[in-house]
Every structure is written in structure tokens, then in C-alpha cells.
Amino acid sequence: MSRRYFDLALPGYSMAEHLAGRGFVVGTIDHPAVGDSPVPADPWGLTPAVVADADARAVRELHARLGGVPIGVGHSMGAMLTVTAQARDPLYAGLALLGYAHIEHYERTELAGVLTSEERTLLGKPDRIEAAVAELAKARFGRPLPKGTTTRSAFLLGGMPVPDEALDALDGCIAPLLACCGLASMLKCTSDAIGVLDVPVFIGFGQRDITGDARSTASALLRCPDITLFELPGAGHNHNVAPNRSLLWDRVASWAERVGVPEVTRPAR
Length: 269
What we know:
The protein is an alpha/beta fold. It has helices at 15-21, 48-66, 77-88, 117-120, 126-141, 154-157, 164-171, 179-186, 217-220, 245-256, and strands at 71-75, 94-98, 201-206, 227-232. Strand 1 (71-75), helix 3 and strand 2 form a beta-alpha-beta unit. Helix 2 (48-66) crosses helix 3 and helix 5 (126-141) crosses helix 8.
């Protein structure tokens, strides 16, 4: 999906508008070759490291213009790329990772069940993934920018009651999948990166999400000083069309308001 997922063209369905109403300056970006961003000459080169670095450059430019405390928000594969960017060159004061999980027994999840035996040999091995993912993605997808998973997929909606007009709005953010990044995300490519994050992290997920046990992500955040977990009741993976989506948005906002604010140390009595 494109950045429009965060700003759906339907009243009451824009997370960006909701956060702006809480006083935040909100910027959304498209990864290279997605949405409004141009396609490079060789999109097979769009590995997680390359895309994360490109995203980081865009964020740094926005921050230089706008100032403030930069907080990274990513959903699904976008959360993986946000983690990757932060681990490679820290730029955020806090991270909100939505629809993302790092779990020990990922190979038992429904997502991992579609991996080939060759792909499984790379599970949780980031360096090998970065080097081999293009060839593996060619074998799996056949092209670097295949059609993305339909936004109306029952797998992603998790049984949520979603009105037709909201599904139509989701259709407006359909975009090609970055084949290398999509496959790398399925292979636990952030297994090292997650352990070096040293800023506050908010982990938001749906009760019926596709991530597996998102709560276990907390145990992988070895250097994180402040971990918040929030499960959106009844929600699938595409939280921004959930009937109770504003609960998640408000929790993210309340958490973000504290990021970058020094803690007050009370004198001992």
C-alpha cells in the first residue's frame, strides 16, 4: 500500500488528520517505486537497506525544514523498514510499529507457512537475506514490483465489519509490492536490528492480526528503555479501517506526546 493508507480519502478514516488534530505535524512518505515516488532504473536493487536509507533521507529533509521531535510510524512492511532505518542510522526519538512483530518461533506462523525450503534457510539471518533476497524474490515473484496484496483481503481484514465506502478508500492506496522488501520482511530480516533500538517503542497490533504473538516483540527489544504494547480489540491487520480505529490512533498520540519529554526525577524523602 502507498502512504495514502495513513490518509484515507473518507471522513473519519484518516490517521494523519486525526493525529494533526491532536497537535502533531504529520508527514507521510512513499517508498521508492511506490505511490508518488519514481521507479528507479533497476527496482531489483530495492532491498531493505536501500529503501530504508532512501526513506531516512526523506525524513531528515522534512525534519530539517519542520523541526520538532521526529517520531517514526510504520505499518506492516513499513514498520520493518522503519526499524531497519533506525538501526542503520538513528534518526527518530521514538518508534510506533503497527502490525509488526518479532517472535522466536516465527516459522510456526501462517505467514511462514508459505516459505520455500530455500527461503527458510535464511530465516533470521539479516546479512544473508540482504545478499540473496533479490534472487529469491525473482524466483518467487518473477518481477520486482508485483501487484500488492488486495486491501480487501479477508486475510488482512480479519473479519472486521468494514463499510463499502471504507473499502473503496482502501482501494485508493493500492500500490505495487516491493518484492525484495516484502520477502525480506517474511524472513525476519530485522532480527538483529530490533535488538539495537534504544528509543521508546510503541507496538500496536490487532486482536486478529497476521503478525503472530506481537507481545513477544518486547523481549527482543534488548536496549529499549520504554516499551508500550497495545492490542486493538477485534481488529485485523489493516487497523485504519477498523470500527474502533480511533482507539489505536489516540493511544499512539498519547504515547507520542511523552516521547522526548525529560522525565522528572523526584528527590528522595
